[in-house]
Amino acid sequence: MNAVIKFLKKPIASSLLAILVGFIVAAVVLAVAGYDPIGSFAALFQGALGKPKYIANVIIKATPILLTGVGVAFAFQTGLFNIGAEGQYIAATILSSIVGITLDLPAVLEIPLVILAGVAGGAALGAFIGFLKARFGIHEVITSIMTNWIMLYLCNFVVMSDAFHKPNSTSALPIHSSGYITILHEWKTTDAAVDALAGVPWLREALLKTDLNAGFIIAVLVAVAESILLARTKLGYELRAVGYNKDAALFAGIPVNRSIVLCMLISGAVCGLAGALNITGIAPHTITLLAAQEGYGFNGLSVAFIAGCSCVGCIPASLLFSGLIYGGMSVQQVMGAPSDIINIMIGTIVFFIALPAVTRRIAEWLERRQEAKAAAGDAALPGKEA
Amino acid sequence: MEVSSEYAVQMHGILKKFGAFTALDHVDLDVKRQTVHAILGENGAGKTTLMNILYGLYQADEGGVFINGEEAQITSPTEAIRRGIGMVHQHFMLVENFTVTENIILGDEVCGAAGVLDMKKAREEVLAISQEYGFDVDPDARIEDISVGMQQRVEILKALYRGAEILILDEPTAVLTPPEIEKLIEIMHDLTSKGKTIIIITHKLKEILESADECSIIRRGVYMGKVDVKESNETDLASRMVGRNVNLKVEKTKAHPGEVLLSIRRLTVADERGIDQVRELDLDVRSGEIVGLAGIDGNGQQELVDAICSLIKVKAGRIMVGGHEVQNTTPRNVFEHAVATIPSDRHRWGLVLPMMVEENTVLERHGEDLFGKGIMLDYDKLHEYTHTLVERFDIRPSGCEQERMSGLSGGNQQKAIIARQVSYVPDILIAFQPTRGLDVGAIEFVHKTLIAERDRGAAILLISYELDEVMDVSDTIDVIYHGKIVGSFEQGTVDEKELGLLMAGGGSQ
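The joint structure predicted for all components is written out below.
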């Protein structure tokens, strides 16, 4: 019982409980709509984990939202609400594409340059939002949302401009293939590769049928690095102090405005990395016309909240999120149930992330009950009084 | 004690636990009707917890509550209000941009036919109650435009409007100026003479003597008995509250002032609205002396401190620290000139509450190599360093280095700030309201520390709204009124009356 109480007091308990509630609500919705919940969940898991190809795709789809999630969580821990992850992501895809289309260098140079361009784009946009807040006191939520739209239309403008547009399509030219970070992307289409992989079917499937790339590893490293930055460095200490109490930080001589700009710059850089990795990592390796925002940034918000705004927590949260989305497509294919159910489920999970208060109450209630029991037990022992 | 209708409130054998911590250990309270009853105790003694139980915010684990001799199950504030209990919290719960009337009727609106709000009737009702008790409150004024004392009266009106017969006032004088305190005590006596019963929670001994009839004392969650205030005095109350003899008199030797370390010349500072709050102020503080600045809240003290710390720009004049001008630079620059400041609002300016104690003790100097080379912060060093401060300054609970700062009591939070500022070995120490909200035990500690710093050779500027504190601790007493120094005295050459007159602008200067 003590272990249960201790567990319930941990922040992770509320995330797990929220996920459980999410599944329950989804089951009810499915049942009401006339679909078998058990079968649907089976299809969901099958669709997310059933084949190496599926797992590879879940990881691929988790990469950008892991990074935008880390970006949002990082900003949140320092007291800023970066709802502009979407715009920073788009800014990065634009710059990465432009650099990748324009330059044609060996991979050792091309890849870092294309990625750096995207990171710089996200960072600059983030820093701009931070600057507006620090200098003029404009709330970051307002400026973030505005820049999201500005970036969307800027992206469309670049796609359609003569210099970058790919004729007879809705996208820009792809970047030069030396900028691809797809794992073994040249080798895997050769005959030698087909021979070598014939003996290892799971690897063959994961490599050949997907765009499996190095992005997820980079993203995990970034998540860990951000966690260390926040918890163990002097800079992280300052950023957290500013986030929790700007006035006390100012009073203590910490440059508050610089911290705000820096925090948004770092957050924007991480969101930008998400965009850069998508350009270098997955087809079509360029930007396309956007009718609406793709949601990489907004899904990052959900990931950050499921993770309880812990940067490392974003790793499992992004895998869960991407697993639900990707596996959810098979719910539609196998059961005929609309994949919107999955969105309801995700929505419910995020909604119930507000559960910390509830889990804490449950823990306290259990504790009280235990104490009452202990007290009753003491009274029942007659020798105790003497 | 027997349950009787002679008593407005009786609470018997109240036990309240929070987890393993016993906040109240079988506490009794018997409040006679139509009296002012004080509950006295140190910070964290359980006074507010007891009142929150009475008001239905918490449930007692054991014990009974009786209102006018009848057993009452008070499970919610709604139930408490129904039984005629009203509570005014230390931090006001008012909507800033609503008028007085709107605030008072909020949640209990006067409605005409079809649920239309009848503001005219509401306003009349508010005005009537206000006049009945001599509150002198403008029903149409916006909360943001009226003084803190007025806002408190609005809170009391709010309770009376809901039919309160028993009023609980939680630390009502913490935010008031001396004249406002006087007015409040007047109002309290007026209310009891008109049939109300008042319970005040406080740790200010003087006010208990002036306002209360009886006083119940709680020490660390244990009921220490009831005192007839008429037969008691400050020293008696203080030692009952703390559990040992407390020295209310500040012990110190004669000052031996040295060279001038802080020198302010013709300083003019405007507030956010552009109105001058500090006007051509001159002030000197020498090494080895404590200069106390007496004055009523709002006479430029806040702006003066903000200007010294370079939090705001000065309009004119100079602030010299050891011969260097520091005005209009940065807080960091001022700190690097060996100026340490104990801020008036510890939660806002002094601490980062959600962070650990050991993170809070290095707020100004975490960047030094002592706490880790390069970009990393060495938490082992932090821990070690904080441990010595916790021991040296007796910050409780001992071993709290990795607790969140928010988990410490107010007195210990203040100790942590003082420990931090003193550990910098500053040349100049600015202490702005250093004992605000502290109990006598903690106040004694703060005053001793200030004097020890003085004897070490620091120049100390003490700014306080508590006249007693300024008179007891300072070697030189300056009076600030309207942003100017209007009088300067050596300690012992001036009395409370003369200072009070100057503070209120009644001086000849």
